[in-house]
Design a protein that fits this description.
Strand order of the largest sheet: 17-18-16-15-21-22-23
Largest sheet: 7 strands, mixed
InterPro entries: ATPase_NBD, FGGY_C, FGGY_Carb_Kinase, FGGY_N
Protein name: Carbohydrate kinase
Strand content: 15-25%
Helix content: 25-40%
Keywords: Kinase, Transferase
Family: Belongs to the FGGY kinase family.
Structural class: alpha/beta
Number of helices: 19
Distance between the termini: 55 Å
Number of strands: 23
GO molecular function: kinase activity
Oligomer: single chain
Length: 535
C-alpha cells in the first residue's frame, strides 16, 4: 500500500488504534483496515516502589498515553501530510491484574496496586481453598479480599474496581467494561456464560468478612464483554483526554479492552485450542489454549481465557528481562568508559552472541533475576543475585548465558507442570517480546529450556499494541458468526513471516543441569530476602 492510499485511508477513518500500557513502555499503533501498521508512538515509564507497593501514578498514565499518541500523530503528519481526525475503532490493552478501586464520585481510593506486588498471600490462599480454583496473588479479587482482611478503611467506600486497561477504556468511553480475557484476571470466569462464575460470586458474598459491607461484589466489577462486541464509543471527553490538541473527533467504536496476555495471543495467532504463546519482557508468561480440563488445581497455573472466552492455562512469572537489561546497562557504561559508544542493539547483539560460546550448563553459574518477588519459586520479594562456586567456569560467555537461562527459569519450572504432570499438548508454541528482537539466541534458549519447538513471528518485538488494534478491527469489521480464530486465520495471518527452532538435545541436557543448580541455590535467594531488608 503506497503513501497516497494510506493517506486516503487515514482521512476517511479506515484505521484502527491500538494502545498498550506495558510495564516499561506505553505504545500506540495505527493500523489500516488491511492490518498494515502505518504509524506508532511510545512513551517510556517505570513503576515506582511507594511505601512497599509497586505502583504507577494516574498522572503518568495519562502523560504516557497522550505522549505516545502525540508521537504517533506527528509521525502521521510527517509521513502522510494529514492530521488524524476520525478513527474507526480503538482498543486499549494493559498489564493484566492488579487493583484500582474507586468511590461513587469516581475518585481513586488507594494508589494502583500492580501485578508485581506479592502482598495478598493470605487472601489468595483462602480464596483458592474456598473456590477450589487457583487465585493468584496479583488477581483483583485477591487484592480486594486482602484489603478486607487488613481492615483497610477505603474498602467501605468502594463503588467500582477495575484493572488498568479497564480504567483507561472507562475514561475514554464512559463505559465500565472489560474484555473477558482481562476479566479472567479479576475474578474466575464461567466458560459456559463467558461471565464471572455466579456460584463463586455467591461463595464470596457469604464470607463473614465480606458481609459487613453495603456493596455487592457483582455491582462493583466491570461488565464482561467478549471479542467483537461493542464497548461503547469514544466520547468528546475521551477524545480530549487522548488528544489534548483537539484534532481528534469523538465517535470511534471502542473494542472490549484486554490484558497484555490477550493481545499476545492475538498477535501470535494463538487463540485456537491446542495453540500457545509465550511473551517475554519485564515479566514472562505462557498461555496454552486448552482442549480439555486440567486434572487438578495447581497454585502455579492460572486459569484465564482468550479474548473470546476459551479456557487458557497460564504460567506467569514476575521477572524476566529486567536483570539482563541492568547488566547490559553496566556493560554499556564500561564501553563508554573505554571510548566505545555502541548502539544499544549492537551491544545486546554482542552480549547475546557471546553466550553461544558458553558451556551447555552455563559453567555452573547461577543467577536470580528477581527484581521483585516471584510466585512460582515462593519468593516474597526480589533480590537480584549472581552466585558461583570457586570451581565454576566464570567467563563472559557463561556469564551472559546464565542471564538468558535465568530469565526463563521460573517459566520453565511452571511449564514443567503443564508438560510433565498435566501432559498438555500444543500444536504450536509461539514466542514474542523484546528478548527475541536479537535473532535466534533467546529463541533457542527457550526451546532448549522447555524442550519444545519455538516459533517467532516477524512482529515478535511489537506484538501487543498491534494485537489490540487487530481486536479493534475485529469489533468493527468481523462478519456475523465469524469467530476470532477464523478472522485471524482467514484474514490477518494469511501470509505470516515466522521461523521455528527445535530444541537441541545436548543443550536440553545442559539446561536441565542448570535448573538443578538453580533449584538447589533457591534457599540462598530466600536468605537474601530475609537478611537484606528493603529500606
Amino acid at each position: 500500500m503506497d503513501n497516497s492510499v494510506i493517506k486516503d485511508e487515514i482521512v476517511s477513518g479506515h484505521i484502527s488504534l491500538g494502545i498498550e500500557l506495558g510495564s516499561t513502555r506505553i505504545k500506540s499503533v495505527l493500523v489500516t483496515d488491511n492490518f498494515q501498521t502505518v504509524a506508532s508512538g511510545d512513551y517510556l515509564w517505570e513503576n515506582e516502589l511507594d511505601q512497599g507497593i509497586w505502583t504507577y501514578s494516574l498522572n503518568k498514565v495519562w502523560e504516557g498515553i497522550q505522549t505516545s499518541y502525540a508521537n504517533l500523530a506527528t509521525e502521521v503528519n510527517d509521513k502522510y501530510g494529514v492530521e488524524i481526525k476520525n478513527i474507526g475503532a480503538i482498543g486499549v490493552s494493559a498489564m493484566m491484574h492488579g487493583y484500582m478501586p474507586f468511590d461513587k464520585d469516581g475518585e481513586m481510593l488507594v494508589p494502583f496496586r500492580t501485578w508485581r506486588n506479592n502482598i495478598t498471600g493470605k487472601a489468595a490462599t483462602e480464596l483458592t481453598e474456598l473456590f477450589n480454583f487457583n487465585i493468584p496473588e496479583r488477581w483483583s479479587i485477591a487484592h480486594l479480599y486482602q484489603a478486607i482482611l487488613n481492615k483497610e478503611e477505603h474498602v467501605k467506600n468502594v463503588d467500582f474496581i477495575t484493572t488498568l486497561d479497564g480504567y483507561v477504556s472507562w475514561k475514554l468511553s464512559g463505559e465500565k467494561t472489560t474484555g473477558v480475557g482481562d476479566a479472567s484476571g479479576i475474578f474466575p470466569i464461567d466458560e459456559t456464560t463467558a461471565n464471572y462464575d455466579e456460584s463463586l460470586l455467591e461463595k464470596f458474598r457469604q464470607l463473614p468478612a465480606v458481609k459487613q459491607y453495603q456493596w455487592d461484589i457483582s455491582s462493583i466489577l466491570p461488565k464482561v464483554l467478549v471479542a467483537g462486541e461493542d464497548a461503547g464509543k469514544l466520547t468528546a471527553e475521551g477524545a480530549a483526554l487522548l488528544d489534548p490538541s483537539g484534532q481528534l473527533e469523538a465517535g470511534a467504536l471502542m473494542a472490549p479492552s484486554e490484558g497484555d496476555a490477550g493481545t499476545g495471543m492475538v498477535s501470535t495467532n494463538a487463540v485456537r485450542k491446542r495453540t500457545g504463546n509465550i511473551s517475554a519482557g519485564t515479566s514472562a508468561f505462557s498461555m496454552v489454549v486448552l482442549d480439555r480440563p486440567m486434572k487438578k488445581v495447581h497454585r502455579d497455573i492460572d486459569m484465564v481465557t482468550t479474548p473470546d472466552g476459551a479456557p487458557v492455562a497460564m504460567v506467569h512469572t514476575n521477572n524476566c528481562s529486567s536483570d539482563i537489561n541492568a547488566w547490559t546497562t553496566l556493560f554499556s557504561e564500561f564501553a563508554r568508559a573505554i571510548g566505545s559508544n555502541l548502539k544499544p542493539n549492537d551491544l545486546y547483539a554482542a552480549l547475546f552472541d557471546s553466550s553461544l560460546r558458553g558451556d551447555q550448563d552455563a559453567g555452573g553459574l547461577v543467577n536470580f533475576s528477581y527484581l521483585s518477588g516471584e510466585n512460582v519459586t515462593k519468593m516474597p520479594e526480589g533480590r537480584p543475585m549472581f552466585v558461583r562456586k570457586p570451581d565454576s567456569n566464570f567467563n563472559l560467555a557463561n556469564f551472559f548465558k546464565v542471564q538468558l537461562y535465568s530469565a526463563f527459569a521460573p517459566l520453565k519450572i511452571g511449564m514443567d507442570i503443564l508438560l510433565r504432570e498435566e501432559h498438555i499438548k500444543t500444536d504450536v508454541l509461539i514466542a514474542q517480546g523484546g528478548l527475541f528482537k536479537t535473532p535466534v539466541v533467546a529463541q533457542q534458549v527457550l526451546a532448549d529450556a522447555l524442550n519444545t519447538p519455538i516459533t517467532v513471528m516477524g512482529n515478535a518485538g511489537e506484538g501487543g499494541p498491534w494485537g489490540m488494534a487487530i481486536l479493534a478491527l475485529f469489533a468493527k469489521n468481523h462478519k456475523d458468526g465469524q469467530t476470532l480464530a477464523d478472522f485471524l486465520d482467514d484474514e490477518v495471518f494469511t501470509d505470516s513471516d515466522s521461523s521455528t527452532l527445535d530444541p537441541e538435545p545436548i543443550s536440553v541436557r545442559g539446561y536441565e543441569k542448570f535448573i538443578d543448580n538453580y533449584k538447589a541455590a533457591l534457599p540462598v535467594e530466600g536468605q537474601a530476602v530475609e537478611s537484606m531488608k528493603m529500606n
